[in-house]
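Dear H.,

Thanks for agreeing to be a second pair of eyes. The structure we're designing against is below in token form, covering all 174 positions.
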């Protein structure tokens, strides 16, 4: 088990990065950065733009390691720029594709299947800065499916790899 910190939680009801990057993003809702969020098994984050969307069930929650943000980005604005849901300090989530992990913010563990990388798109060069798409390749976070209900909250948390990548079946009940 690893001690981590949940630095930011982004739950946005709107998809801000649609269309052409040259046109710029849609303005951010004032309340998209939250202190806590409810997670629903197989559905995602309550209130998020991808919640209960069949096309996004295997990518309903995105995690990113703060250590992988470009050095010149304001960490307080990290999620708004990258559009990842959970910004963590203290764990390299990009190395965990294929694993099942547990994130416990004090209310019990939330299990997540780490399905695939969250590949940075051309929008990163607009929202983060020139060269960000290239700088974030292989370090842009991961797309996950929630395997349990629970709550994520800002602050200290524990992070555990419950099942290594390629280890077999999912934990019982998931």
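And this is the sequence the design step returned. I haven't edited it by hand at all.
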């Amino acid at each position: 088990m690893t001690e981590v910190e949940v630095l930011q939680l982004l739950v946005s009801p709107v998809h801000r990065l649609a269309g052409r990057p040259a046109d710029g993003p849609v303005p951010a809702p004032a309340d998209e950065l939250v202190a806590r969020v409810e997670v629903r098994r197989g559905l995602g984050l309550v209130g998020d733009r991808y919640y209960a969307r069949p096309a996004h069930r295997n990518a309903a929650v995105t995690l990113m390691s703060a250590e992988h943000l470009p050095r010149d980005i304001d960490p307080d604005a990290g999620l708004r720029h990258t559009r990842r849901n959970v910004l963590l300090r203290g764990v390299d989530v990009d190395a965990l594709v294929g694993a099942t992990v547990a994130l416990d913010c004090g209310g019990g563990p939330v299990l997540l299947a780490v399905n695939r990388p969250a590949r940075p798109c051309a929008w990163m060069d607009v929202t983060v800065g020139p060269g960000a798409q290239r700088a974030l390749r292989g370090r842009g976070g991961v797309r996950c499916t929630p395997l349990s209900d629970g709550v994520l909250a800002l602050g200290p948390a524990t992070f555990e790899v419950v099942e290594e990548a390629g280890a077999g079946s999912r934990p019982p009940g998931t």
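Two observations from my side: The radius of gyration is 15 Å. The longest strand covers residues 109-117.

Warmly,
E.
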